[in-house]
Inverse folding.
């Protein structure tokens, strides 16, 4: 900073901070205020802040009350809780939680894929039952399968997808294809496609992974029409936003045998109701929207926040700026 002015920053409790970390931010030239992530501030208090860091904060607070806001740091990868339409044309910088959760989410996908292909659920049950169930070596086959040689399609080619590509290459998959907004080639992929080529990608994939952001264009995009194009026995992974996938169509595809498995950390309606058929299906693997959790999460989150606050105070470019026209 070129003067002694302190930048008023509001950091909600969605971002845990130690005393040492708070002091580190203050040393960058900030006056730090803390509040609850769903706490509503009076307009006169809101008008003090030039920078806000939070998660769901603007679901409870009116953007127009923050008359001096210039930079909003969202700690989530998605920005569904950010008032995107209101922010358009304001000049307010918006950054998202880029590359914070890519490693644990990529590991989650590989863990679930291996659990399915290697029948981990069966072996765990047999261990509990103290049963020694060997593979059938004659006629030299079994129902165990490999990741090796599979073709993987990934919808969305952001940081999580890039981390997943790195892990999958280690298993020597046959090919990895991606979908991004314009089909631009990227080094992690054998080829990339445009969103209107989703059915083509589904048809060639043994594993189809949804890592797309939730926008008007992606909502309900993995539906019965797309699922009908998939190979018999293929695997669908839902890992970004549940609203991308039509749950009822997935259930029908599982019932018919078109889908071999559904691996989901996110679904359209959360939490899943007790009477949802997904609970009872042996080829469905569910976790409650926690694939991003990691012992490294708080360290990565603070590093991004600190770096972006340092960039802002110095008048330098912010990392992971959201394109509000695209919604991600």
């Amino acid at each position: 900073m070129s003067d002694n002015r302190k930048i008023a920053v509001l950091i909600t409790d969605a971002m845990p901070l130690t005393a040492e970390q708070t002091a580190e931010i203050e040393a960058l030239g900030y006056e730090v205020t803390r509040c609850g992530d769903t706490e509503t501030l009076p307009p006169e208090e809101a008008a003090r802040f030039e920078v806000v860091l939070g998660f769901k904060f603007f679901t409870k607070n009116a953007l127009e009350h923050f008359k001096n806001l210039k930079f909003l740091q969202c700690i989530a990868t998605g920005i569904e809780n950010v008032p995107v339409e209101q922010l358009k044309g304001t000049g307010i910088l918006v950054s998202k939680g880029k590359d914070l959760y890519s490693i644990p989410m990529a590991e989650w996908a590989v863990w679930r894929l291996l659990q399915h292909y290697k029948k981990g659920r069966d072996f765990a049950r047999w261990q509990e039952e103290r049963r020694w169930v060997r593979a059938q070596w004659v006629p030299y086959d079994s129902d165990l399968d490999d990741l090796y040689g599979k073709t993987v399609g990934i919808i969305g080619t952001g940081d999580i997808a890039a981390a997943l590509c790195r892990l999958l290459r280690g298993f020597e998959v046959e090919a990895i294809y991606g979908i991004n907004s314009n089909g631009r080639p990227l080094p992690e992929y054998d080829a990339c496609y445009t969103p209107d080529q989703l059915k083509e990608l589904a048809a060639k994939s043994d594993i189809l992974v949804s890592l797309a952001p939730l926008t008007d264009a992606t909502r309900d995009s993995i539906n019965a029409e797309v699922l009908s194009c998939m190979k018999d026995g293929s695997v669908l992974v839902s890992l970004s936003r549940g609203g991308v996938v039509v749950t009822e169509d997935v259930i029908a595809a599982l019932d018919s045998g078109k889908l071999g498995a559904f691996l989901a950390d996110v679904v359209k309606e959360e939490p899943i109701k007790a009477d949802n058929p997904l609970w009872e299906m042996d080829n469905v693997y569910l976790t409650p929207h926690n694939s991003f959790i990691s012992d490294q999460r708080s360290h990565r989150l603070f590093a991004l926040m600190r770096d972006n606050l340092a960039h802002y105070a110095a008048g330098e470019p912010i990392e992971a700026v959201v394109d509000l026209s695209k919604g991600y």
Summary: Residues 220 and 244 are 5 Å apart (CA to CA). The chain has two domains: 7-100+296-313, 102-286. The two ends are 30 Å apart (CA to CA).
